[in-house]
Every structure is written in C-alpha cells, then in structure tokens.
Design brief:
The protein is 30% helix and 32% strand. The protein has 122 residues and is an alpha+beta fold. It has one domain (2-118). A 5-stranded antiparallel β-sheet has the order 1-2-4-3-5. Strand 1 (29-33) and strand 2 form a beta hairpin.
Length: 122
Amino acid sequence: MLLVACLLTVAACATGNYTPLAGADKDQVEQLKENVYRVEYRVSSFTSQEQLDAYLRRRCAELTLREGYDFFHLAQRADVLALSRRTSMTVTMYKGSKPTGAVDLHDARDVLAKPAILLKNE
C-alpha cells in the first residue's frame, strides 16, 4: 500500500518535459494540405491544460519553421483525457509578413524564443 501511495505521488508530480518535433512519433504530425497540418501532442494526465497548450504551440512553431513558414493559426481542436492527455489541432501556416488584421496568428519565432515551461496562452 505504501508503494502504491509513493508511485501515485511521484506520478502526480511528473508533468513531463517538452518533446521537440524531431522526437515526435510520425502519427503526431499529418499534412492535410500544402500549408495545413494536424498536430497532436500527448502528456501525462497530471500535466495542466495550460502546459499542454504551451507544448502544443511550441510543436506547431517548430513545424511552421521547419516547413519554411513564419506564422501559424490554430483551429479545430480535439481533446482526449484518459490515462494520458492528448490534444490535436489543425494548423494553418503563412509565409512573409503578418497579414493585416489577422487574429490569433502566432509568430513561430516568438513562440520558440520563450522557454517551453513558461509559455502562456496569447
């Protein structure tokens, strides 16, 4: 019984570390169109929603730059909470200058300039 309590305590404290795009499974990034992808991020069920969102934005920023784009927009979110927490988003990427009047458009370089653990919803 003491062992179970210790394991639960350790698991509750573990929120996981950010896994860069290079370490992602192939099923976690799927190209839907030329500049549109489905990106998934998985963490333990003990990780806060805020931290999961920060990790997902960072993964999208890495993908945006890897594919030669500058900005990204997140849409069509799907969340699953079970023994692990999983979120997938549809990401649309844009090149060049930030479109005038664009709402909820993230600058990939700005997202990556912040530490993964401290990212906040923008």
